[in-house]
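[User]
If only I could read backbone structure tokens as easily as an amino acid sequence. I have put the entry right below:
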Amino acid sequence: MTFILNLLHKNYSLLASDREANIVGRPGSLTKIQIGDITISSDTGITLDGFRKVKLSRGGACAVGIVGTVDDHHYFANFEENEEIDSTLNCISESVQRFCLLSNRAMLLSSARYMINEGIVSFFDSKVGEFFSLLYKFTRMEMWEKWYYVPKDGGPMLIPAGSGSSKFEEAVGKLEIEKFVSEIADNNSNSRQAFDWIRDAYNKVSRVADGVGGEPEFCLSTRLAPLFCFTDKSDP
């Protein structure tokens, strides 16, 4: 119940995420959450608006957006403590491997359906002068990952993740997505169109995807300012 969208352009990487969180407890028991001195309880689960699903590494060289059960992304709690790109990537990789490579393999015999945890980590590699994004998915049963970058003869790309991604094309329209990607291919200096278009896309996805918030949060890195920062501005 999350929608992460990464717009990977040759001159910038824009990471967007909804901020709706759904907390589901065990059947027959109350779901509780503590916020300061306030305890919220519910026998049907709790939905929160304003939960941040994107974090920055120390200094902002990398940004990561997560999908699934937060506790399964063990690195997420201390993601801000990592600074270098490679150490940040290793932090994620080692956490995913520990989650999947169980010493107690009896857990794999469970008939329970495992939730798919996903993440997108993006960064600008100054050594090769390119933006990269890594999409990864994992459960107790499997691990999967894929690198993305914009080739010199290629155009920008949209990388979706989360439950909302299955509704993305349906809600926005395949032709509309292709038109948007084509229009921003040569738009190097102004991402106003990208911000506006993605906001509209989130609004449309939220109408058909349960548990996906309609107002995205943005995180941006550009060639001129390669360190990621949270922003609602329209110009990179």
Q: What stands out?
A: Residues 192-208 form the longest helix (17 residues). The first strand starts at residue 4 and ends at 8.
